[in-house]
């Protein structure tokens, strides 16, 4: 039972390079999310999706783009990496059940360093 | 303005004693509150939750208490075990946007043998 899988686990980029982080879930969840976690801070929402083909901005969307072409995949893109984007990135997914709490299931993170 | 706050960055307790982790929130529109546990190099995992219509929810050694008038919730772990050593995040979900959680900054719990 894989759950939420993030690829890659580690990456080092140079300023200005671009890359895509991949998130895949096998739980048939409707909702998917991308967060970043910086040292001493909680998880900040970058973008999220409430279903295939939909995306929405979170708390810190600048410098990132996302796509949800398939229900099971949620891609996070950095168009022109900056040192301020050095962080650990977490993907999560959850069911959408109105009126109930919806725990999120997280991947193990991608540690990204921008030099 | 941080809507969910965990004011204690760290907590250290002795094995077998009670651990109490606290969380304060400012948005009265939050409908559900969740606690997640995170080990190093892993993603957070869901631990326990509580609805805003309740004041207590218990699951084994873990109990969450909610005080709506004070906009405060706490997680009690009894008895604490060394394996409980982790970062604990409080999260809140508003009733207007199901699934979209706001997280606190986390509290690092260390349980000493």
Give a written overview of the molecule.
The complex is a heterodimer of chains A (115) and B (113). Chain A is mainly β and 115 residues long. Helices cover 0% and strands 49% of the residues of chain A. Chain A has a single domain, classed as Sandwich (Immunoglobulin-like), CATH 2.60.40. Chain A has strands spanning 4-7, 10-13, 19-25, 31-37, 43-49, 56-57, 64-67, 73-78, 87-94, 105-106, 110-114. The radius of gyration of chain A is 14 Å and the shape is globular. Chain B is mainly beta. Chain B has one domain: Immunoglobulin-like (Sandwich), CATH 2.60.40. Chain B contains no helices and eleven strands. In chain B, the strands form two sheets. In chain B, strands 2, 4, 5, 9, 10 and 11 form a six-stranded mixed β-sheet that branches. At the A-B interface, strand 4, strand 5, strand 9 and strand 10 of A face strand 4 and strand 5 of B.
Biggest beta sheet attributes of chain A: 7 strands, mixed
Structural class of chain B: mainly beta
Poorly predicted segments of chain B: none
What average pLDDT do the residues of chain A reach?
93
Q: Characterize the largest beta sheet of chain B: strand count, sense, and whether it forms a barrel.
A: 6 strands, mixed
What are the main properties of this structure?
heterodimer, A: about 120 residues, mainly beta, Immunoglobulin-like, seven-stranded mixed beta sheet, about 0% helix, B: about 110 residues, 11 strands, globular
């Amino acid at each position: 039972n894989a759950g939420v899988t993030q690829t890659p686990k580690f990456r080092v980029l140079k300023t200005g390079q671009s890359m895509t982080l991949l998130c895949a879930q096998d739980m048939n969840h409707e909702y998917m999310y991308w967060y970043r976690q910086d040292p001493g801070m909680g998880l900040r929402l970058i973008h999220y999706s409430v279903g295939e083909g939909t995306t929405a901005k979170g708390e810190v969307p600048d410098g990132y783009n996302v796509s949800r072409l398939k229900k099971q995949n949620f891609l996070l893109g950095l168009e022109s990496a900056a040192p301020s984007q050095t962080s650990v990135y977490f993907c999560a997914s959850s069911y959408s059940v109105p009126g109930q709490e919806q725990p999120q299931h997280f991947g193990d993170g991608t540690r990204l360093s921008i030099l | 303005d941080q809507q969910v706050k965990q004011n204690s960055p760290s907590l250290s307790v002795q094995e077998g004693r009670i651990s109490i982790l606290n969380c304060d929130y400012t948005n009265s529109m939050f409908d559900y509150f969740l606690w997640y546990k995170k080990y190093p190099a892993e993603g957070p995992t869901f631990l326990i939750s509580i609805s805003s219509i309740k004041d207590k929810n218990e699951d084994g050694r873990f109990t969450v208490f909610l005080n709506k008038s004070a906009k405060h919730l706490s997680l009690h772990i009894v008895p604490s075990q060394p394996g409980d050593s982790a970062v604990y995040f409080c999260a809140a979900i508003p009733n207007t946007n199901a699934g979209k959680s706001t997280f606190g900054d986390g509290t690092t719990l260390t349980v000493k043998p």
